[in-house]
Amino acid sequence: MGGGGNPGTPIYNFGLWDAKSDQELNGDYGGFGVTFNNTGTFRKSAGTGSTTIQNSVTFNNAGTVDVLSGTLAFNGGTGVSSGTFNAAAGTTNSFNGDYTFNSTSFTGSRNVVLAGGTLTFDGTFNFQNLQQTGGTLAGSNVFSGVFHWSGGNWNSVGATTIASNSVLNIVSGSDHDLANRALTNYGTVVWSGGRVRGGGNPGTPIYNFGLWDAQSDQEINADYGGFGVTFNNAGTFRKSAGTGATSLLGGVTFDNQSGAIEVDSGRLSAGNNTYFQGGGLFTVKLGGLGAGQSGEFITSSSASLGGPFSVSLADGFVPALGNEFQILACASRSNTFTTLQMPTGISVNYSNNGVFLVITGAVSTLAITAQPTNQTVFAGGTAMFTVSATGTPPLTYRWQKDGTNLTDGGNIFGSATSALTISNVSAANVGTYAVTITNAAGSTLTSRNAALSLLSCLPPPLGMVSWWPGDGNANDIIGGNNGILTNGTTFAAGEVGQAFQLDGVNDFVLVPDSPSLRLSNLTLDGWFNFTALSGLRCLICKPLGTAALDSYALWLQSGVLHGGVNGDSFIGAPLDTTFAPLAGVWYHIAYTFDDAANLQAIYVDGSLIASNTTTLSPAYDTSTVVIGGT
Question: What values do phi and psi take at 589, rounded to 5?
């Protein structure tokens, strides 16, 4: 479709614009081009390729952009958005142009590609999979979720924040430039490739309050000159891979604000910056005598110690008597470590220019082979932290929350085991968890911190009887009608958190009968994603008697939605729809029954798709409620 000319082609969409093929909208007639103003819904519902908004089109979105198939590509144009961009599973929104997003909402799979142009984000944004392959990131923004930065740059005045429980992956061998941009990390930065370059005026301040994990032998430099780069570490700066050096070069100021330093292999170099340990943990891993097999921290300036020190052994490595390892090299050293956490048989030797570890006896092995990981759950859900360790048995465990030892009781179980379980999670349980492990020789190691956080949801509506989030268990977090996973029912990624994963053959969740599940007026609803559409599939059903009846049911049959209620030995009028969901797409589906009005209805994503009347009220027996099944 083409437009343009003088005075141009303005398009105002207040309803539904449904793109059902892989075509393009362009301004081939030149002049003032095309301006597409969307306050309704712009949908790509078919075509596995790209529907393209070309470079002579201005696309302003105050409504909803809904991608159900393939890719919607904004290619070289401009636009401003304060609306919503939805991407179903397996689909993508791609931007290559000068687009501005003002607190825009990204929903669904949240797969978004930034391919070129200047992409300005102002506000807070949540992505499941944001990829920058080109272009310039601009604006002042907070990103939650997962951000993959493989190409393009951040060379613009502004600020970017990586939120807690979020990840920035700095990948590929390309340079990653952020001249004049402030970067604040509360989550995890996984830096696995390419140089990080900054500077300019006002320069590049980096504030690390989370984990900055250097997984390759790269450098941070100030190639853009000016006020250079300042790396402020109040979290953990870790070098976890690479046997060479990860370096902060000239023009980069390293300010360790009582943050932790961890060097698992190779050398982590602070350049010519003074290192003040403060109260931060200094950790090294010993993995061998070869170059780079054991960790070492280097500064060509002075080092002032004064905090805790920890040593761990790489899997399978046991140092021999007389082995020596330099773990700190500096121009001058002052003070010593305050506490030591390391296997027996290792001594710490201090010199004017560094710190050495010397093997003075048989080393009692103790190593953490799998660290606890962050957990995010619904209120009322269950969280589990686990750790794996090897060492001289027996091993003992003690979990801590925010540095305080835990004991079993209330909703806490397993505080002295390798698996800590927290049931019925509430805001009081939110915090940082770690475990201290002790072997038979008395050597101790403390794991990395792992955070427990709650998913942000609206409060449940009044009158809700039961809610099964499927977040790692079949528990009802509202009414206590806990379900039973049957025939191998498992879990997969859901629209939010986890979801029940059913095989479509004989997997289901059984919920024992309860008076609270025998309702006169009812709503059955949930998020559903179908991998296959054939046959008969129960979404939520409560069987009745021995015949093929249900007190109430919401089901999919031959790819079409249905719902209904039945009386005792009487079949009610089913509610049949013509709605046929697509495979691989998340839908919110709801069935409602109003006994007084004899009215039943089915809604999909909040829109009414069918309703009718029935003269029956639901009858009940002691049959279970079934989620899934055929």
Answer: -120, 135
Residue at 475 is within a domain: no
At 598 the three-state DSSP class reads coil
- The amino acid that residue 564 corresponds to is G
Structure tokens at 445: 């190691």
H/E segment holding residue 264: none
Tally the domains of the chain. Answer: 5
- Listed in sequence order, the DSSP H helices in 483-574 are none
Q: Taking 80 as the threshold, does the pLDDT of residue 110 lie above it?
A: no
- Assigned token pair, 16: 């539904």
Q: Is residue 173 part of a domain?
A: yes
Last residue of one domain, picked from the residues 102, 120, 149: 102
Q: Which of 579, 558, 577, 555 is nearest to 566 (CA)?
A: 555
Do residues 200 and 229 share a domain?
Answer: yes
Are residues 156 and 239 both part of a single domain? Answer: yes
- Quick: pLDDT tens for 542-593: 998 876 788 999 999 988 999 999 887 667 778 999 888 888 888 999 999 9
* Residue among 265, 211, 269, 270 at smallest CA distance from 241: 265
- 4: pLDDT strictly greater than 90: no
Q: Is the CB of residue 560 less than 8 Å from the CB of residue 577?
A: yes
pLDDT at 570: 62
Q: Which residues touch 409 (CB under 8 Å, ≥6 apart)?
A: none
Q: What is the pLDDT of residue 374?
A: 86
| Residue 469 included in any domain | no
The tens digit of pLDDT for each residue in 111-158 reads 899 999 999 999 999 888 899 999 999 999 999 988 999 999 999 999
Asked if residues 286 and 311 have their Cβ atoms less than 8 Å apart, the reply is yes
User: What pLDDT shows up at residue 484?
Assistant: 92
Choosing from 102, 127, 162, the residue where a domain stops is 102
Distance, CA of 4 to CA of 319 (rounded, Å): 74
Q: Are residue 281 and residue 248 in the same domain, yes or no?
A: no
CA dist 430 to 12, 374, 376, Å? 47, 11, 9
Domain with 606 in it: what CATH number?
2.60.120.200
Same domain, residue pair 97 and 193: no
- Which amino acid type is present at position 494? G
Interval 511-545: pLDDT, tens:
999 999 999 999 999 999 998 888 888 999 999 88
Judge whether 421 and 414 are in contact, CB under 8 Å: yes
pLDDT for 495 equals: 80
Is 184 domain-assigned?
A: yes
What's the token pair of residue 618?
């639901």
Rounded Cα distance between 399 and 378, Å, is 22
Please state whether the peptide bond connecting residue 515 to the residue before it is cis, i.e. omega within 30 degrees of 0: no
* Separation between Cα atoms, residue 177 and residue 170, nearest integer Å: 11
Domain that includes residue 28, residue range: 1-102
Q: Say if residue 533 is in the same domain as residue 569.
A: yes
Q: Which two tokens stand for residue 379?
A: 């209120």
